[in-house]
Amino acid sequence: MEAIRKSLTNAPNRRKYARRDFPREDQAAVEIDYLPRRCESTVMHIHQASPNPDSDSIWPILEPTIRAGETYTLPMDMSRADAIAYWFAAQHEVFVVQENKQTLGTYFIQPNHQGGGAHVANCGYITAPWATGRGVARAMCAHSLEHARARGFRAMQFNFVVSTNQRAVALWQSFGFEIVGRLPSAFCLPTKEFVDALVMYRSLM
Amino acid sequence: MEAIRKSLTNAPNRRKYARRDFPREDQAAVEIDYLPRRCESTVMHIHQASPNPDSDSIWPILEPTIRAGETYTLPMDMSRADAIAYWFAAQHEVFVVQENKQTLGTYFIQPNHQGGGAHVANCGYITAPWATGRGVARAMCAHSLEHARARGFRAMQFNFVVSTNQRAVALWQSFGFEIVGRLPSAFCLPTKEFVDALVMYRSLM
């Protein structure tokens, strides 16, 4: 089993963290034990998910974000079946963050393109509304970067970060992502306001 | 029938062209009669395509580009069935350029994203190897911009223009597309050289 254990410091600059890598035995059982900022005794685990049995715990996380329509380019009235099919698309590897068996977040990772673009990874992350502010997105991003490197990806790209999602932009920047593109008025908020979207990119080499 | 007739001038600055719009009757039968530079008496027609009967004339156009692996992020060994399925994906509208019943090129248009990003169009164009240098890509781009406007799109975006494809970059720029993003080393050429890809964007408003 590949186990990655991270201890994030409580210091304001959360980019600094210690990492210990344990011997890799099973690529499928990637797991992260994560000590969040507010409760040193609590541990988050990240493990690979599948539609069965994980859909029941993932849909309550996807649904609020889809219904809000503020960050993902998905129809706000998307059905559960369509959302689960999207999240578990054939090329996606899906992971969930759990703490005491409660699911706090989920992310997918995929090659951003085929052919000559298959060396760049792409991810989507969603944190449960009941778990915001606890470092769940940070834990998922850290995990995804490790996993992308382990799979041999040379870079990671986020194709469409809504510019008003400043918390996400700042988080990705704290992980070394740079804004390499700005798409003018490319996203229509539920308020019908058109705002820019950002393309963010970081090398894994 | 929506008919769009364009006469491109032979002048070096080919951005200038006269346009006459005829009354729109049938959205499905969008057609363009295009007088190319080298033969004023020849007319290219652009019409909507479907897998049956157009796959037989489209595959010989897709295959050389896919096998070359220099411009599209598709596997170089992609099968005919997979390529046709990709080109005629559910959200794609596909068009072909024909002259004297010979197919010279094909393009698709789709919403670049769902939800809050569905107002931006995305296209892919491929010219037949036997028809390069005759303004086929220019005719397709002009047609796609008109069609995108007619469908209500507010902008068009090309997500991944390989930076070494300078002819395409210059052509899209001549249509008003701007480079709004540069993806470092995002494309691996068949020579194993990593080159940048460009994100190009233009408003339709």
Describe the overall structure.
Two copies of one chain form a homodimer. The first copy, chain A, has 205 residues and is α+β, with helices and mostly antiparallel strands. Helix content of chain A is 24%, strand content 37%. Chain A has four helices and ten strands. A ten-stranded mixed β-sheet of chain A has the order 2-1-3-4-5-6-7-8-10-9, sandwiched between helices. The first copy, chain A, is globular, with a radius of gyration of 16 Å. The model of chain A is unreliable at 1-41 (pLDDT under 50). At the A-B interface, strand 8, strand 9 and strand 10 of A face strand 8, strand 9 and strand 10 of B.
Query: Outline of chain A, from the CA principal axes?
Result: globular
Low-confidence runs of chain A: 1-41
Computed structural class of chain A: alpha+beta
* H-E string of chain A: EEEEHHEEEHEHEE
**Portion of residues within helices of chain A:** 10-25%
Q: How much of the sequence of chain A is in beta strands?
A: 35-45%
The greatest interface between two protein chains, and residues involved on each side, is: A-B, 37 and 38 residues
Indicate the radius of gyration of chain A in whole angstroms: 16 Å
Average pLDDT number of chain A: 85
Number of helices of chain A: 4
* Tally of DSSP β-strands of chain A: 10
Please give the oligomerization state of what you see.
homodimer
Q: Main β-sheet of chain A, in a few words?
A: 10 strands, mixed
Distance between the termini of chain A: 24 Å
Side-by-side strand order of the widest sheet of chain A: 2-1-3-4-5-6-7-8-10-9
